[in-house]
């Protein structure tokens, strides 16, 4: 991670422009528990042609999610909630290499930064892919992932996120906000740089 992040402490939008323009990542919050909500639209993701740019993008989105949750002076334990929507995902969207990279970065450079991750609308064909991916996900991370499959899990998911943070498309009251449209406090990048846990 350190080799990709400039002295400013934050990878600028310009370095991951191609990934941002796909419109697949949204940042909301706070959730009912007070954490940022990072929403990923799987149907808008396609395997990257440039793995370095994709890795920078993973760092960029995780850093921004964490920074958006900073309240005052960072203490190093800010967490985020993830929401991965697989509605309308086809084989063209499947990027096993990218998913493994994302989980490896999350586990290696952002340990304990994930509070919980909800997976919605998982298509039947993705179950086999998910089982394969689980080989690369440690138990601590796996325990935080909830695959929403029935009405009760859906109700609990909505309750835990809260209607104010949940976008309208998911039954909430929030408007979808693209990652690049979220403005961070000026001090946030510096706080991330100063924190050795990131």
From TrEMBL:
CDD domains: SEC14. It holds the Pfam family CRAL_TRIO. It comes from the Eukaryota. Residues 13-178 form the CRAL-TRIO domain. InterPro entries: CRAL-TRIO_dom, CRAL-TRIO_dom_sf. This is Phosphatidylinositol transfer protein SFH5.
